[in-house]
Automatic annotation (TrEMBL):
GO terms for cellular component: cytoplasm. Gene3D superfamilies: Zinc/RING finger domain, C3HC4 (zinc finger) (3.30.40.10). This is RING-type E3 ubiquitin transferase. It comes from Diploptera punctata (Pacific beetle cockroach). Pfam families: Sina_RING (PF21362), Sina_ZnF (PF21361). It catalyses: S-ubiquitinyl-[E2 ubiquitin-conjugating enzyme]-L-cysteine + [acceptor protein]-L-lysine = [E2 ubiquitin-conjugating enzyme]-L-cysteine + N(6)-ubiquitinyl-[acceptor protein]-L-lysine. Pathway: Protein modification; protein ubiquitination. Residues 18-54 form the RING-type domain.
Length: 329
C-alpha cells in the first residue's frame, strides 16, 4: 500500500537516531574516527570514547547535521499542516507519508549535489576537514573551501544507496523517480522549465522561466521587438541589436544579434529540449548586398547548444542579411 520511498525515509530516520539515547539527532552530531555518529549531549558524557567501537571522537558530522535539521523542520511543518485536515482520513495520511519520503529524498539529493559542478557524489561520500560532504571531482568543499579528506560519511552513504526522489521538475508535470544512479535525467528532463534567453542589451537578463508552451505568450507580452519565426528557413536583416526566436522542428532556437561599430556578432542557441540537439544541422549564410560573404555550417554535435559567430562589416554602407536554415540532420 505504501510507496517504496518510505523505506528510504525509515532508513534516513534510523541513521539520524542516536545509538545511546535513541533521540533524533539534530545538531551537533559527533563523529568517531570510524564513522559512528552520536548526539552532542551523549558524547559529552562519554569521555571521548565511542560507545560502539571505543574509538575517539574526531569531528562533527556537519553534512548529517544539515540533513537531520532539514528533516526535523520538514516533520514539524507537516505535523502543523496536518492539524488542519481530518486526522482520521487514511488517504490524507498516505499522502502525507509519501510527501515526507519524497521530501527526505530531495533533502539528501540536494546535500549530495556539488554546487560547483552540479554532479552528485554518493559512493563514496568524503568529508572536508570541517565535516561537510565534498564532491569527488572538485576536491574542495563548496561550503567552507576546506580540502577533501579520506574520512567517509558512511551514514549518508547508506541512506543514499536507497535514495529515490522525484524529478525536481515534478511541479512542471514530470513523474520520473530518480535514484542516485540516474541523476542524468535532470539535465534532459523534457519538463525542465525554460529560462527566458532574451537579453536586451541595455538592460539585465530577463528573469522569466516557465513551461515551454508558455514561452510564446511571454515573448508577446515582454519582448515586443523580438522577431518570431515559425519556419526553419528565413532571412534575417542585420541592422540593430535584436533577437529572433524560431519555433521550428519541434524545438526553440534563438538568434541574438549584437552590433558594434563595424562588426556584427551573432549567437545561436537551442533553448528548447537539449536532448534533441544532435538531431539538427544549421547553415548560416552571411549575405552582403546580395553577395555571399561567408557560410557557416553547424553540424550535429552536443556543443551545438550555443554557437557564436562574428563578422567585421561596414554596416553603414552595406545591407547585411543572414540566411538561416535549420534542418534535421
Ligand atoms: Zn544521544
Ligand atoms: Zn565508533
Ligand atoms: Zn564538484
Ligand atoms: Zn567544509
Ligand atoms: Zn523529469
Ligand atoms: Zn523574457
Amino acid at each position: 500500500f505504501f510507496d517504496e520511498g518510505l523505506k528510504m525515509e525509515e532508513l534516513a530516520l534510523n541513521e539520524i537516531e542516536c545509538p545511546v539515547c535513541y533521540e533524533n539527532m539534530t545538531s551537533p552530531i559527533i563523529l568517531c574516527i570510524r564513522g559512528h555518529n552520536i548526539c552532542g549531549s551523549c558524547s559529552n558524557k562519554l569521555y571521548n570514547t565511542c560507545p560502539i567501537c571505543k574509538g575517539a571522537f574526531n569531528s562533527r558530522n556537519l553534512a548529517l547535521e544539515e540533513v537531520a535539521t532539514k528533516i526535523d523542520t520538514l516533520r514539524k511543518n507537516i505535523l502543523q499542516n496536518q492539524q488542519s485536515v481530518s486526522p482520521f482520513d487514511i488517504l490524507d495520511r498516505y499522502k502525507t507519508k509519501n510527501t515526507i519520503a519524497q521530501e527526505v529524498g530531495r533533502i539528501i539529493a540536494n546535500e549530495l549535489k556539488c554546487k560547483l559542478c552540479n554532479k552528485y557524489s554518493y559512493q563514496p561520500i568524503y568529508f572536508c576537514t570541517n565535516g561537510h560532504s565534498t564532491c569527488q571531482k572538485c576536491e574542495i568543499c563548496t561550503k567552507c573551501c576546506e580540502k577533501k579528506t579520506d574520512g567517509r560519511n558512511y551514514a549518508l552513504e547508506r541512506i543514499s544507496k536507497q535514495l529515490e526522489y522525484p524529478c525536481p521538475y515534478k511541479e512542471f508535470g514530470c513523474s520520473f523517480i530518480l535514484t542516485m544512479e540516474q541523476t542524468a535525467h535532470e539535465t534532459v528532463c523534457e519538463f525542465k522549465p525554460l529560462r527566458c534567453p532574451i537579453r536586451d542589451y541595455e538592460t539585465t537578463h530577463c528573469s522569466w522561466y516557465g513551461p515551454c508552451e508558455e514561452f510564446k505568450n511571454h515573448l508577446a507580452h515582454s519582448h515586443v521587438s523580438c522577431q518570431l519565426y515559425e519556419v526553419p528557413n528565413f532571412v534575417l536583416h542585420l541592422k540593430y541589436n535584436s533577437n529572433a526566436v524560431i519555433f521550428a522542428l519541434g524545438n526553440i532556437f534563438v538568434i541574438s544579434i549584437l552590433i558594434k561599430t563595424s562588426s556584427v556578432f551573432y549567437k545561436m542557441n537551442v533553448v528548447g529540449s537539449k536532448r534533441n540537439v544532435i538531431k539538427y544541422r544549421c547553415v548560416h549564410v552571411v549575405v552582403l548586398d546580395g553577395d555571399v560573404v561567408t557560410t557557416v555550417v553547424m553540424s550535429p554535435s552536443p556543443d551545438w547548444c550555443e554557437f557564436v559567430g562574428g563578422i567585421f562589416l561596414d554596416l553603414i554602407n552595406y545591407e547585411v542579411a543572414l540566411v538561416v536554415s535549420i534542418a534535421e540532420a
